[in-house]
Design brief:
Elements lengths: L3 E4 L4 E4 L9 H9 L2 H17 L7 H16 L15
Helix pairs in contact: 2-3
């Protein structure tokens, strides 16, 4: 049986992650409060942010930015898309 969580993003009980996504306080918070569905959506959002802002994920500045965006995506307003972003068409 899947690990179930009350997802902070979707406000309902959903299957959670198999394990914390990273070994930190935030990683354990995500494990306890974010569904697999929401995490998969975050992974896609993160890719878009990396590409749109041309971030280098190994830099501390990019990591800090992504953590802020992730917190907003899961626990805040959902995060804003970059002004220049154009969604792909079918």
């Amino acid at each position: 049986m899947a690990h179930m969580v009350f997802c902070a993003k979707y406000k309902q009980e959903l299957p959670g992650l198999d394990e914390p996504p990273f070994d930190s306080e935030l990683g354990h918070k995500v494990y306890k409060t974010i569904s697999q569905r929401a995490w998969n959506e975050w992974v896609e959002r993160q890719k878009m942010l990396l590409n749109e802002y041309r971030l280098q994920p190994w830099t501390p500045q990019a990591q800090e930015f992504l953590v802020e965006q992730m917190n907003d995506f899961f626990y805040g307003s959902g995060g804003e898309l970059p002004k220049e972003y154009v969604a792909p068409t079918a």
